[in-house]
Structure formats: C-alpha cells, structure tokens
Design a protein that fits this description.
The protein has ten helices and eight strands. By secondary structure, it is α/β, with parallel strands linked by helices.
Length: 289
C-alpha cells in the first residue's frame, strides 16, 4: 500500500502545474461528498473555494475517484471526508502521505452504529474494522451537530481572523438542525414509530434519532428473496406505509413493484443532496405522512 501511495504522490506532483485547484485565490477545501460543502458554506459563507469529490448525482458507495479527484484531495488546504466510504480510502492515504495536506475524517466525531442498528462504543478507534460501521453517518441531525463542531474548529484554524463569525454561524446552523429533531418529535406524538421502507439501508442513524423503524429491501448488499419481499409487502400494508424510498442512483424498477403491491408511492431519496438540511426535512415529513 505504501508503495502504491508513494507512486500516486509522485504522479500527482508532476501534474500540479496544470492542477485547477492551485489556481484559486482563496484557500481551498476539498470535500468527499456534496453535503459537506453545505456544512462549510453554512459556517464560512464563500470564504473558501470548495471542491466536491463525489458528485451529487453519483453513488457514495460505487463512485470511482478520477486522477483529478486525487489531485484535488492532495492539493487542498483541507480535505474533509466521512472516512468510512470505500472510494475515500486512496484519497485519504494519498493526502496523509503529503505532509502539506490536512485530512479530517468526520466519522471520528460522530455517534457510530452498526448496519443492524447497534450503537458502537464512543471514542474507540475502529480504523481496523470500518466495515462494522454503517457509513451513512451524515444522514441524521445528531451527527450533523457533531460534524458542524469539528468543521468549525478546522475552519477557525484555517482563518483565525474570522473565527468569531464562523462560531456564530455554527450556532445559527445548529439551531436549524435542532428544528429537524423538533419536527420529528412533534410528528412522532401523532404517529408512533412509523415504518420507513427503503431499498438500500441508508437511514439507520436517522431512524434512531427521529423515532421511526427502517425496513431495508436490500439485505447486506444482496437482492431480497421472495420470502423477504412478501414480508415487506405485508408489513407495508399492515402499517399503512405511504412511500417506498430508493436512492436516486439506483434502478427503481424493483421498488416500484413492491410499492404497487403495498399501494405506496415510489419516492426518490438522494443521500448526496447538496442542500443537506432541506433533504432531511423533506425526508422526515415524507416518512411521517
């Protein structure tokens, strides 16, 4: 691995002369996924040039970083990433191998859960067993607050003269995040523990924070069996499920079949939506219809 990363750094260093990221007048922050751009811009406005690695319309799980993506991660003043996505690993290693780059893996500041919904011990280094963690840590208000704290701290170090403004913006941002939780609490009083059926289990953290049960069609990355589908349909009918969610990067055909049997509406959900706050608010409202 070290030889591989060293080779990457050598290649990238040769390409920096034509690297777009070095032409920006402002300090540059590379973010692995589009929602992290939203965090930076809510806290710092347009003080930084923000380069997003994985596009909004791509898959957080399967996107293959390009050589330009690698250069962006290494050449940035700060690389903010989740730290749990497979397609982040080479960029993280390459950025860490460059002594001028700074990398923050935000999962280390988050509440962590396993894919089956169990809490993992806070403060433990899980770097050798990342596959035991549900990677979708950003899809919840609770971790949104934690990530905003860590990001603000990093931005204040990059631009200390603006630290007071960043901290004030962080408070305003966190107030908006708190409203998501209040929205879920308010709706939960009228509809106890609704079921949210989704193709890929991306809502583990949101379900725990916002009082609903996630029912995943996909099981450990595998297509459901006929028995699984039958059980999901029966659960959906019994609980008057109004929507069946699917990620915007996936083929919705199998979801449409299940939704039709339940009498529900297939509903697209983009975990990489650029407006993180609005995306979660819309999702909570849809789940509690």
């Amino acid at each position: 691995m070290k030889k591989y990363i060293t080779a990457i750094i050598a290649i990238l260093s040769l390409a920096t002369g034509c690297d777009n990221i070095l032409k920006h007048d402002k300090p540059t922050i590379a973010v692995s996924i589009e929602p992290l751009r939203y965090f930076v811009e809510r806290i710092a406005g347009d003080d930084f040039e923000v380069v997003s690695i994985i596009p909004e319309g791509a898959s957080a799980e399967s996107y293959e970083p390009t050589p330009q993506n690698m250069r962006d991660a290494v050449a940035s003043d700060l690389f903010l990433c989740i730290g749990l996505l497979d397609n982040e690993r080479n960029m993280i290693e390459a950025a860490k191998a460059d002594t001028t780059a700074r990398v923050i893996e935000l999962y280390k500041s988050c509440i962590l859960m396993s894919p089956d919904g169990r809490y993992l011990t806070e403060g433990v280094d899980y770097s050798d067993s990342l596959r035991g963690i549900d990677p979708h840590v950003w899809i919840t208000p609770a971790n949104g607050v934690r990530m905003s704290e860590k990001i603000t701290e990093a931005l204040c170090e990059l631009a200390p003269d603006n630290a007071a403004r960043y901290r004030n913006n962080k408070v305003l941002f966190q107030n908006d995040i708190d409203l998501l939780y209040i929205l879920a609490v308010t709706k939960a009083q009228d509809k106890h523990l609704p079921k949210a059926i989704i193709y890929h289990p991306a809502l583990t953290y949101l379900a725990d924070c916002c009082f609903f049960e996630q029912i995943a069609i996909e099981k450990e990355g595998k297509e459901p069996s006929a028995a699984d589908i039958k059980e999901i349909i029966e659960t959906g009918r019994k609980n008057d499920v109004k929507r069946v969610f699917y990620q915007s990067q996936l083929n919705p055909e199998s979801v449409k079949v299940i939704a039709d049997e339940i009498g529900a509406t297939p509903t697209e959900f983009n975990p990489l939506a650029s407006n993180w706050l609005l995306s979660l608010k819309t999702l909570i409202e849809q789940i509690y219809e």
